[in-house]
Amino acid sequence: MLSMYLTNSAVYRFFMVKASFTEVMFKKGEVMKRWLLACLTMLCMVALLVGCGSDTAKDGKQGKHMNVGLYWFGETLDPTHEWDAWTLTRIGAGETLATVTPDMKFTPQLADSWENVDPTTWKFHIRENVKFHNGTPMTPQKVKESIEYTMKQSARSAKAVKIESITVDGQNLIIKTTEPNGSLLSSLTEPAFVIMDTADLKDVASKPVLTGPYKITSFTKGETIELAAFADYWGGKPGLDTVTVKDIEDNNKRAMALQSKDVDVIQKVDSANRSLFKDGFNIQDVAGVRVLMLKLNHTELSPLHDKAVRSAIAHIINYDSMAKIIGNGATPGAAPFPPSANLGFDSIANKPMTDVAKADQLLTQAGYAKNANGIYAKDGKELSLTLAIWGKDTSLYEEIQQELKQAGIAVTLKKLQGPGEVDTLGTDSFDMVERAVITMSTNDPYWYLSLFYKTGAKANVGAYSNPQVDALIDQLSVTFDQNARANEAKQAQQLLVDDVADIYLMYPSATVVSTTKVKNVPVHPIDYYLLTKDSTIE
Q1: How far is 98 from 87, CA to CA, in rounded Å?
Q2: I need a labelling partner for 66 at 20 to 30 A (CA). Which of 179, 215, 414, 441 fits?
Q3: What does DSSP say about strands 224-229 and 214-220: parallel, antiparallel, or unpaired?
């Protein structure tokens, strides 16, 4: 304000001098008068501009600045620490060898091409003329060191890639795996594998040295990340000069921050807050890669061992109601993978539809009949199920409880301490259990299928087992062609639907809400993608 005052004072003194001068010179001719008036007009315009300033100037920012509200930060910005790297790809700071497009296709990023040489050998051609944020050239040797560092620091990441060795051959990176790994490409798109300069790790927890369009300038845990455009970015000039990313985990606070224009764009908005963004805002929704489902107990300890009972429940549940309860653009469920996965959702046969009469027919054929209490019973034993839940919001499962009760199936809700307790549940302690799963986190079906449906897998808590599904999962691990992998996943999905392996309630949406000034911040089915080089603000 002081500088603005001084500037304006100088302009005022100039006006006074010029006014006196004009009075004298007026006698010398109309031409001189007109010239002076033109000068005064220009000076007035300058004064107005100096006095008004700009939004970015007021915020202490220069050029185009965007404020972003995220629903989660990692504890650090170290790519190898747990899931913290997801923040790095969201904010446009970190990049991987390949990435995933919004239509769920792999596309080059720091590798401009790749090929599978043989079942255990991959060749990646590393993009030339890429620099790290510290100005150091990104070479194939640097990429090798980055991947090896990630594997050393993160056991989870090392297990996913199954890499035996990495060698450099000119501009190529040659990766040998310990066994055929058809998911290698997908695993290398996981944010933990963002490429960083491992020779410069002194500030890796707060300022990792990466390659993206935006360079991290400061990090305050749980509060903000400040970024600046990287002038030497290989993909061209970024659309923003600076970015402030804010950690706003509370849904209401994040929505209010956007509504009040404290931020320009946010991820995730719940149904209750969508009405805040009718005018002057854009809401983008897309079916995400998550599924909310009920994992079912397939052992003889549960009535759900009988496929007829599983199928009856699948026909009682109102999937439209499930989606409406969650709201926010959620899509009704029916299959293991959401439509966004591009695994033939529309062509799947036998997808369950709400049909209570069909459910009654199935239960009657299975030997059940309603007793005096209006509950299905068989051999004198009522059909009573335990549904284990762990989330804070229980409304969805209370609705399921009511729907099943009205149809004649008793359900008891069993509250767990948290999602971590699910994997340790004994099959004698539940019939159904709440589960929220990312099905295509790296645009690949193998992880989800192998973890949740392979016989004996840890997350297969209901002991589902189908040799045909097991064979397809095993085949996925050694199939490299993307079209062939998709076909194998489709076959597995159809078998799971036919078996009523689980009940797939709905697919939450991925959502981005922004002011109308924000441009080119696309919504992505995978929500660890957000800012791009082309993101900008008017």
Answers
A1: 17
A2: 441
A3: antiparallel
